[in-house]
Structure formats: structure tokens, C-alpha cells
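Audit log entry. Action: structure prediction of a protein-small molecule complex. Ligand: zinc ion. The ligand was supplied as SMILES and no pocket hint was given, so placement is left entirely to the predictor. Protonation state taken as written. Sequence taken verbatim from the request; no trimming, no tag removal. Recorded inputs:
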Amino acid sequence: MKSGWVDRDAETIVAAGAKSGIDRDLALRIYTTRLLGRDPKLVLHGGGNTSLKEVMRDRLGADVEVLRVKATGADMAMIDLAGLPAVRLSPLRKLRALGEIGDDELVGIERASLIDLAAANPSVEIMLHAFLPHKFVDHTHATAVLSVIDQPDGEKKCAEVFGGRLAFVPYVMPGFGLAKKAIDVFERAKPSDGLILSKHGIVTYGESAREAYERMIEMVSRAEEFVARRRKSVSAPARRGSAEVAQIAPIVRGACSERDKTNEGAWRRLVLEFRATDAVLNFINAKDLARLSQAGVVTPDHAIRTKNWPLVLPPPEPAKLAEFARVAHDAADQFAARYHRYFEQHNARVGHIKHELDPLPRVVLVPGLGLFGLGRTKRDAEIAADIAETWVEGVSDAEAIGRFESISEADMFDCEYWPLEQAKLGSPKEPPLTGQIAAVTGAGGAIGAATAKAFAAAGAEVALLDVNFAAAREQAKAIGPSALPVVCDVTSAASVRAAFDAVAAAFGGVDIVVSNAGAAWQGRIGEVDEDVMRKSFELNFYGHQRVAQAAVKIMLAQGTGGCLLFNVSKQAVNPGPNFGPYGIPKAAELALMRQYALDYGGDGIRANAVNADRIRSGLLTADMIASRSKARGLSEKDYMSGNLLGREVTADDVAQAFLHQALALKTTADVTTVDGGNIAAAMR
Ligand SMILES: [Zn+2]
């Protein structure tokens, strides 16, 4: 590992800081915190923190010694001034006299000591930084260091690797107790460079930002070299194709879902993120996977993201997926039962004060295939997968130099259920479609894009399918980094199959499909070319059938129901003159919706349709609006609001109708009219 320090970059940030009143030490604290944060081998998703002690002038002109420490949950790679709240040091230092202190009381004292009372909460490891006397303190959970210290003889290995420059602090749960233990060890041993926190991480310090940072790099490099010398080389493992991942992921996802007992028909679902690096494949294909997979986390704060153990499934055989599904469900049930027992046992130990988290796995290992990270959102799934990859590396390397050993199950419970750790995960209030995956066809167009946006705002992960990939990509970009653009020509069975494989591989499956892609053809029905009729049927009927079939296949593999939504338009119930080539396949599409509702209701799959009219979109362009309103002698505004309510209907109105149908768990075979009122198109 090389130092990322570049003099010119450091001076740039110092110069920029000077303009907004940030002193040199603080600017360099920001600089090296970012350097640490950008390397996942040092710091991953909120693990790790840094601090600076300096003198500040308060509002009354008095000098006050403060600790600037990373805010809890802040991303070190992007840290700025707000991510380093300043806390008065002297009240914190005095706390050392106390034997112990409750979390709430400690947080209260920290908050009362903030210079800016509106600042974010400081890191849960603030007291470690407060007690150490050094100006700059850096703390990481560097993977290579964890491999060295997650050992039965971790202390001996530390002495061998770090040669006494880091003192060894035996395992204590993060927080006040660890801070006290660490300062005791420091004062006894007076190590030159920092501390090792057993089974947890590394601390380095210095009188300058560069000194503390480069000590971190040097110590981690020593650990890396120690491990690298002993690591056995392995050949590149065989890798399965993405179509196979797409087949297996929905089975895994279904097995790792649970019924919502408070709301019949609802499920608690997770989103998946697949990984199959060489390191992952070598690990999951190893002979001692049974032991290693159950050995525990590499550092305590991972427990909140990955739980203490992954779910391990048998290798799936492509020809025997039904058998794989059965075994996967059994294994997931056993996982949940074990998690429940673990919770009960340790909750009893602490006096029944904790609330059980959901018992679903956050990491699933599938030998021969890869690993899945699971989370309530795609982002959470990615974080779980990142941490699982680090765990794989940490455990594999620990085994290369000795034998991996984690903290005890009781210690893991104390971290997993520590309120200050749980606080890193943010608010438990979730939007209604959280955990669900929605695929929208024709998502590059007005109604599709508005629908994808509305579903994403309601918490769903969204895939935007369109024959025009650039249009889908543009709309996905507007929604956010997790939105997935996929090219999909619904007139091609192969294209639809590939698109749904891509959705299943990216998210683990699909729960809601909005079958929206369409285009209009005209012609007087007695004279129209058969070719025109066939073209329209390909897109406006068979397109929907292909999409619904592909979705139902995934939904059945998941076994958690689902929702098919069709854009049928008013033509399905109220034909317009010379619109037969468009209206007739749309009428067939309405029948298709009802058939899906009938045939798959028993599987919990609902089918509904929206009957919308006169929406500004690719089917009703600005030019068409101009010519039609002129032909009828109306203003454009009167033409667009020519309905019972006298209101123009927008793509957002249609999107809200689809959203309502997705949420209405007791509604199937419904047609919702979104046209401002048109008696001739009303359902009867
Ligand atoms: Zn830590």
C-alpha cells in the first residue's frame, strides 16, 4: 500500500480552506481523512474515523481546546467541515474518572459539549480520540490488519508484524470501555506509532496529519506484506453465465423474504447484489466453507450490515432448480430460526431490553456461483456485498497465516444491538414500496418515465426498459444511481428475455411490472392492410404478453406474489373512428390482463390496468395537439381539458394510478380510469 499524499494536492486544499477560514491543520485533517476514506482496503462504509485536537476561539473571544472528530456515519472519502464536528475537550477528558457511563448519558454530554449545537453526532469512537493525547489520531479497520489480528494468537502476531511500534489492546466492545482500556494500555506501553485494537482495527497518531496518515500506511503495508508472503496462489475458478445468475437469484430472493404478518398479501422483501470475483469463488468453493462461513465477522461494526453469519446454500444444478428452491427455502427457514434463538438467548442475558431485527440473511453464499449481498434497498445490498467481499478476503488471508478467529457470539450481539451502531443505519421509516423491484416498459417515454419516477419515490428499485436505450438511460439518470436502464424491444421474445434476465441479475428478481410500451396505427378497419394490423398486434398485444410471461416466470420462482400493470388506454373500451388498428389489440390487452388475474390470482399475482386518455406523450405529440385542436375549432387548452372535469390529464396522473394499483393488495382485474371523465369510456 502506497501513501496517497501529494504535496501539491495538500497545498491546494490548504489554500482553498484559507479562503473560508479553515486553518492549515484542519484543512490537512480533511485531506488525509479523504485519502484514508477513498481506499476500501482501509475504510468501508462508515467504518473508521479520524480526529484533530486544536484551539478554537469561541463567541466570547476565549480560547477553548476542541476535538474535531468524524461525525457518525459520515463518508470519509467525501468529508468536509460539517463531517468533523468540534467538541469541547475538557469535559470529555474528565469522564475518564468514571467507571462506566450509559450510552444516552454519554451522547448527551457529547452533544452538550458541541461548539455548534446543530452539528451532527460525533463518531461512536469519540472517547478513544478524546483520551489519546495526540494532535492527529487515525483509526481504520484495514483488511490486512484484521487478517493478522483476528487470530487466537493475535497479540503474538502483532509483535512479529509491527515490532512493538503498536501496543496491543485486548478486545473490548467499541465505546467508552474500549477508550478507557486503550488509554491505559497507551500510558503503560507508550508505543511510538499507535495501537492495535484486538479483533477490531488499528489506530495511528502523530503531531501532523501527514505523520499519522503515513504511519497508518506503513503499518498496513507491513500487514499486507506479511500476509502476501504466506498466501498460496490459486488458479482462476470457473465462472457461470449471467443467464444462470438470473435464474437462481429469484429463488434465493424468494427464500430470503418473509410474510408480513400484519398485512395479508404483503411481504418483507430484500434487494440483491451479486458478486463473483476470483477471491469469492475460491472461498465459496473451498472444502472448509462450512467452518469458515460460521466463524463470524472480521470487525464488530460489520455485524449491523451483514449479520454475524451468511446463509450458505448448496451448489445449484441448472436442470434441478425446483430441488434447489426447496433446499434454499429450508436453509433460509433454519437460518431465521437460528437467528431467532441467538436473539432470544442474548436478549435474555441483557434483561430483555432489545427489539429483534428481521431474521433474514444479509449475505448468501452459493457455491459454484458467487455471493449475494442483501438489503432493503439496492444501496444497502451493495454495502452488504462490499463488506462480504472484505470479509472473504480477511478470513482467507487470516487462514493463510494461521487460523481465523472472531469475537464471541455474545460480543457480536452486543455490537449488532448497540443503539449507537444501529443509529448509523438511519431512520427506520421506509416508503411503502421499499424492498420491491419494479420494471417499466416504454420507460423512455412520458408515461413510462413518470411511472418509474413515482415508483422510485415510493421506495421501489426501478428498471427502465425501452427500445431506445439512450432515452431509458437519460430517464434513469434523472432518478438516481440505482435506477437501471435496459434495452428492450417488446416485439422480440429474445430481447424481452434478455431484458428480464438483466433485471433479475441486477436486483435479484421483479415484483411489479408496468407494461406500458406501445405505439398507435390508424386505418379504416375494412380497408386497412393486414400488415398494419399485424404490426400493431405485435407491439400492442404480443408485446404485453411477452413482458407479462417473462415477469410471471420470475414471480413464480420467487413465490412471493407480484403485480402486473397494463396501460390499456381508453381505446380498449371506447374505440375511436379509424383507430381500429390501435384499439383492437388494446381491447385484447384488456382481456389479457383479466386472464392473468384469473390464472395467477392463486399465486398472489395481481393484474390491473389503467385506462388513460389524452396525455401529452409520444402518442400525442405537440404537433398532433395543434392540428387536432385546430380541426375541432378549439384552443389547445380546451382540447386537452375536453372532459367532464375540464382538467388536463398528465403523465404524472397516470403514474399515480399505477402506484395506487401496486399498493392495493386486495385489488386485481381492476381498470382504473384516468381521463378527467369520459362517459363513453367509463367501465360498466
Ligand atoms: Zn472501529
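Audit: result stored. The chain is about 45% helix and 15% strand. The longest strand covers residues 49-57.
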